[in-house]
Amino acid sequence: MIELYKFVPQFGIRDASPFALKLETYLRLAGLDFESIEIMSPVKAPKAKIPYIIDGDQTIADSSLCIGYLKDKYGDKLGKNLSLKQHAIGHAVKTMLEERTYWVMVNMRWMDEDKHQLMKETWFDAIPALIRGLIFKKIIKDMAKGMYAHGIGRHTDAEIMAFGLDDLAAFEAVLGDKPYLLGDVPSEYDATGYGFLANFMAEQFPSPLSEYIAGSKTLIAYIDRVEKKAFG
Ligand SMILES: N[C@@H](CCC(=O)N[C@@H](CS)C(=O)NCC(=O)O)C(=O)O
User: Fold this and answer.
1) Is CB count within 10 Å lower at the N or C end of the chain?
2) Which of 10, 14, 50 to mutate to test the pocket of ligand 1 (most atoms within 8 A of CB)?
3) How far is CA 217 from CA 13, 204, 223, in A?
4) What are 202-219's pLDDT values in tens digits?
5) 65 lines ligand 1 (CB under 6 A)
C-alpha cells in the first residue's frame, strides 16, 4: 500500500501544504489505493519537505517526482488521452502555480507579522512553549533569506500580490468554461490547480487573492468540482 506523508489538516483545509493537497488529490483522482500518514513537521522527511510517499521499498520525495513515479509504476491514468499540446499547457500552468504563485502564498502566510501568533498556535503548538518563539523566529529568518535569494523577497507586498493576481487571471483564462483545466475530464494538472486554489481560500488568510477567487464564479465552481470529484 502506498503511504502518503502529509501535514495534519489545518485552517479548515485538508492540507495547508498546496503540494501535499495536490498529491493527495492526484492519488484520489487516479483511483490509487493509499494510506495517509499525518505528521506535524517536515524535519525528518527525506528532503526535509512535505509531501513524500513510501511504496514498498521506494521512498520518493517531491509531489511531481511522486506523480512521475506513480505514472511509471501504475500507468498514466489521467493523462493518456491528452495531446502533447494539452500536456504542455498543463505543465506551464502547473509550473506557474508551483514555482511562482507559491511564493505569493509564502509571503502572505509567513512574512505578515499579524499572522505569526496564529502560525505559532497551530503549526508549532507541538513545540514546547519555552523554545517555540526562538524556533519560530529562526524559521521566519531563514524563509526571508530564501525569499531574498530567490528574488521574490526583493519586491513589495503589493508587487508580490499583483504577481499572484496575474497568475490567478491566467489560470482562470486557461480554464475558461471547461469543467477541468484541459477539458471534460480531470488531469494531473487539476490536482495542482485545486491544491493551490483551495489553499488560498483558507479563511484565516484573507487577501486580494481570496477575494479574486471568491468573486469568480468560474474558480469557485472549479474548486467545488475538483473537491467533489476527488474527495466525494
Ligand atoms: N517541490 C516540492 C515542494 C514541497 C514544499 O515546499 N513543501 C513545503 C510545505 S508547502 C515544506 O515542506 N516546507 C518545509 C521547509 O521548507 O522547511 C513538492 O512539489 O513537493
Assistant:
1) C
2) 50
3) 20, 21, 10
4) 999 999 999 999 999 999
5) no
